[in-house]
Each structure stands twice: as C-alpha cells, then as structure tokens.
## 1
Amino acid sequence: MAASQEDREELLLSCRYGELQNVQDFVARHGAPALVDARDDHGNTVLHMTCANGHVDVLEYLFSLVPTPLLAQQNHAGSTPLHWAALNRHLQIAQKLIQHPGGPGVDLIDIKNAAGRSPLGEAEMAEWDEGARWFVQVMNIDEVKQEESDGQIDSSQSVGIEIQDVEGQIAPLTINNATQALSTSLMESHENQESR
C-alpha cells in the first residue's frame, strides 16, 4: 500500500523523536522504497531527522534500507544529514555517516550548503571542537599536502590562491617569489569589505 502524506509525516516525526518501532512499522506497511520519498516542506529526509537528533539505533536500521546517495541528499537549504549532525554535535552519528561502507565517505565533509558552509564549517559555527577536530583528522589533509608538494614551484613563479574568511568572503591571494605573503588584491578586498 502506498504511503499517504500523513504516513510520511508520521514517519519523519518518528525519525525525529527516535521511535524505532514506528519506523519499522512504516517499513512493514509500505516497504523500504517509501523511506526515500519521505520529505518535509524543507526537503528534509528520514536521515536528516534521524541525524539531527542523534538517534544511532534508527540510523543503523535505516542504513540497511536506504540507498547510499541519500547520505549526501541536500535539503532545500543545501544541508546534508551530516550538516545537521555537526550543527547538533552528534559525533557518533557523524562518524557513522562518514564511515558507512559504500557511502560517500569523507567527501561528505566537502559538501557546502546554501550558506556556503560545509559540515566542518557548521561544527566550527556551533563551537563543537571535538567534531571539528575529528573531521580534520579524517579529511586526509596530509595526502593532499603531499600531492601538492610533489610539484616543485620555481621561485620565479607566482602562485595564485583564494582564501575564504569566516563570513564566507573570498579574497584572491598571490604569492610571488614564494616569499611574499599578501598581495594588493587581498588588501583591496579587505578594504572594500570594511567600507561597506
């Protein structure tokens, strides 16, 4: 039997409040594929509701039933279930999302929402140091640094990069002769922001 809108709303509430038996009853009545279609008015899925509220038992049950792309599903604000886990400081949930076999893994940490924040950014905004440290530990930053250092830069070359500040503003930075730290464009960008 197809799930009605009311059934889907009840399912989302059950995920929000951690009512595992109600979630299991929904699956028994409507089948696992109906879990994927359940969304609230903001585009939140069963995983958003479960992860936002830290219900490990419900998450583990859902893992066996939903397709792995749902782990990276963004709601209307662009937030994934991991964004919500980070915002609400649920380390065990964040770990399970990232470590789920066959899932997106650490790539989940790179997804930005409409506000321009990644789950790591949400953890920092929530002043959740434990979670932010864990995200950084699993992001394979050392591997990226190694890949970047494999290409030698001639000291006569200029290197252009972009820096994003806490408010999401991006400023270009040029490093000349591998020693100059700030470029005119960075200083101008900062001056423009101050004059606003």
Note: The CA atoms of residues 106 and 140 lie 8 Å apart.
## 2
Amino acid sequence: MTWQSVRFSLPPWIEEVAPQGLVLPTLEERMRFVIELANRNVKAETGGPFGAAIFEAASGKLIAPGVNRVIPSNIPTAHAEVMAISIAGQMVGSFTLAGAGMPAAELVTSSEPCSMCFGAIPWSGVRRMVFGATAEDAEAIGFDEGPKPDNWIEALEERGIEVVAGFLAEEAGAALRAYGEGGYEVYNG
C-alpha cells in the first residue's frame, strides 16, 4: 500500500438500491431509503448500522448515498454522513454543496450525527439535515457518539442549516437495535 492508494469506497451492492438518477420526492421516502441502506449494510456485513444520503432538497434527486464503512475500510472517519458528503462533492465537482447555481442540498441520515459528523455538516454546504434515531439509541447498543454542545441543533440553524430531528425515529432506531441484538462489532464503544 502507498500513501496515494488509500481511498474510500462503497460496498458493491450500493448500485442495486441507489442507482444514479434516483428521485425520492418525499422526506418519508428519503428517510426510509437511508434506513434501508443501514439495514442492507448490516445484512451484507459491509459495515455498521448507519445510512445517509445527500439529495437535492426540492426535487429529491439523489446526489450521493453513504453507509458506514469504518470496519471494512479500517478508516475511522468512514461514517455514513462523511461518506455521503465526500461522494457528493466528487459527484458535483465541488468542495461545497452550496456553490453558485447549485440546488439546495439536504443530508438525510438514519441516526443523529456523532460529534465528528456534526463537525463536517457546516463545511459541507447542506441547507437541511434530517435524522431519525437519536444519539441515545446508538449509545444504547454501545457506540460512543462523542461530545457535542448541548445547543448543537441551534448552532447548525444559526449557520442557516435547517434541522429536522427524530423523523421516523422508531423505524431508524429498530435498525440500530437489530445490530445490537445481532452481536455485531461496536468499534468505538
């Protein structure tokens, strides 16, 4: 391995469930999509129980999917949100998803962002972030979500990022509970 050969990648099954050009018009469809990414990632044993995606907010067009790839990639930052944000930048050819003439971007994630992913959100350029399960749900199965300020939602909103919390939380939490009950590895607990 060389320095230049280190790279992030999504699992091979991703094209089956996330074809380029996919449009999911409703927020419910988008959240169910990222929950399915989380469930599929566990079932295929290709990573942890977290799914995320970047969409064009108005149309629901998928810009980039992301799943947790920490264990299979040996990259501790390969969280679903970071994967989706990174791939989205590559797909649109920009370091920001808020560039001139770009449609507003939205991050939908199956679980509340950990402290690392929270830190990445303002720099990504997304205008809205929607999450399902809570940090407490992830911590209940052994994950360490790290420290975030108590007012983290307000901090994002002050930067012009709308936050929708706990959307389809029960369904999203079920994906985490299934992982915990399955005895899978928790990499930072």
Note: The two ends are 29 Å apart (CA to CA).
